[in-house]
Amino acid sequence: MPIFINLDLLLVKRKMSLTELSERVGITMSNLSILKQGKAKAIRFSTLEAICRELECQPGDILEYKE
Prior knowledge:
67 residues; mainly alpha; two-stranded antiparallel sheet; DNA binding; Transcriptional regulator
C-alpha cells in the first residue's frame, strides 16, 4: 500500500510512548499498534483527530503517500 504511517517518528519527536498515547486518546494499544505497523485498512476521522490533538500535528504529518 502506498500510504505510510509515520506514527513512530512523531512519538519519538514528542518523547511519548505508544502506551501514553493510547491512554490520552482512548484507543486500545492493539489498535494503535496495528495503525503504527501500517496494517490498518482504514482510520476514522475521530481517531485521526484525537491523535493529531495529542501529538500537536497535522494529518499529513502522520499519513504519507509514496509511489
